[in-house]
Write a structure and sequence with these properties.
alpha/beta, 8-stranded mixed beta sheet, 381 residues
Length: 381
């Protein structure tokens, strides 16, 4: 009997099933798949594609793409196609890569990953207080009901767990906190601090909810004061053209992109990293990678970042407001000693609590725990 871990996600590879897509969840799946193989599991990653795909994409890792029209691509149908592809001789553990992939039915021997609160963004609609509360309550009920369809929910931050406790009178779901991670590169060159010109980086996808507009407002103030700074915006997204137009006249503002595996070496070139998220944030990979590269970080008090940064100790944390962000960045630009001390304590934080090794240890424990439970159930059948 083979032990097979089925990972369901909407788009790990592209539509043709020829190339991996890019994103934080995709990176998470890749690392988890390799870890599961080392723990003795065979791994299948399942999604919808234009035409049927079945191929090996790594040692012990198989990609299966079910041919389907866009209108048919629902979580229920993906799970149905997954179960139909299984045989009666092997044991399967189902892992939903996000809780949004959960079907409407209960799934035995299953784990879902909850990547943080994503429903905290202001939608701009004006409602009365009672309508606002009622709308949120209905949304919360639907989310909590869906989570009851699996045995275990892995949470990437404690922020979601705290929210969960405010919604129910008793815990009726097993929640396992496993924080996101960053690699710690022992071969990174010694940090070169720039005293003559402080280098600032914004390395996020260029979406308003990632703080592009908020950062732009604060940055305009800093540039107006002609502080000794160089600013790099690294990423892509719908706000790219808008951002480039905003800072076209400033020679000390540049735009670039980098490959995900190069994140640490890229961040190592900077003194300050800014993560000004408006909403929808777990334990931010961008924040963790910046701290691992010994950048002094400025972030907003949103989502799981509140469980990484202690304001004034290993970074600066502010309300997602223009003036608060501007003042925090300016403080670090002008205070070299403070900037360096925050960067060092930030590095120590992620090295000891948010490293890849810590993440792997917790996931390995959970996967090994699910193994005997699954085998007992299979033998009983």
């Amino acid at each position: 009997m083979a032990h097979i871990l089925d990972i369901l996600f909407k788009r790990y590879y592209d539509e043709k099933g020829t190339a991996a897509t890019i994103g934080g969840i995709q990176t998470y799946i890749t690392n988890l798949a390799h870890l599961a193989v080392r723990c003795g599991w065979q791994v299948r990653i399942l999604q919808f594609t234009e035409q049927h795909v079945c191929k090996e994409i790594g040692k012990g890792i198989q990609l299966i793409g079910f041919a389907s029209h866009q209108s048919q691509r629902t979580p229920d149908k993906l799970y149905a196609r997954t179960t139909a592809s299984r045989n009666d001789t092997d044991h399967y553990l189902t892992l939903f890569a996000t809780d949004t992939q959960l079907p409407h039915q209960h799934v035995s021997h299953a784990i879902a990953i909850q990547h943080g609160i994503c429903w905290d963004i202001d939608d701009g609609l004006q409602r009365s207080l009672i309508r606002n509360v009622a709308s949120k309550a209905i949304d919360a009920y639907q989310r909590l009901r869906r989570l009851q369809n699996v045995d275990v929910v892995v949470c990437v931050d404690h922020h979601f767990i705290g929210w969960y406790r405010t919604q129910v009178h008793h815990i009726c779901q097993r929640l396992v906190p496993i924080m996101n991670f960053t690699r710690i590169d022992p071969h990174l060159p010694e940090k070169q601090h720039h005293d003559d010109c402080v280098r600032i980086v914004f390395a996020r996808r260029f979406f308003p909810y990632r703080g592009t507009r908020l950062f732009a407002k604060a940055l305009h103030q800093l540039l107006t004061e002609q502080l000794p700074i160089e600013v790099t915006l690294a990423g892509d997204g719908p706000d790219k053209d808008w951002l480039q137009e905003q800072f076209r006249a400033y020679p000390n503002v540049r735009f670039t992109q980098y490959a995900a595996p190069d994140s640490l070496t890229f961040h190592a070139e900077f003194d300050i990293a800014v993560v000004p998220t408006i909403g929808s944030e777990g334990t931010s990979l961008s924040l963790l990678e910046a701290m691992a590269a010994q950048c002094a970080v400025v972030c907003t008090n949103v989502g799981g970042m509140t469980h990484i940064v202690i304001d004034g100790y290993n970074g600066l944390m502010v309300m997602p407001e223009e003036q608060a962000l501007y003042r925090a960045i300016k403080l670090l630009v002008q205070d070299k000693a403070y900037r360096r001390s925050l960067a060092q304590r930030g590095f120590d934080t992620v090295k000891n609590a948010f490293s890849l090794e810590v993440w792997e240890e917790k996931w390995e424990k959970l996967l090994l725990e699910m193994w005997p439970k699954a085998q007992r159930e299979a033998e009983r059948l």
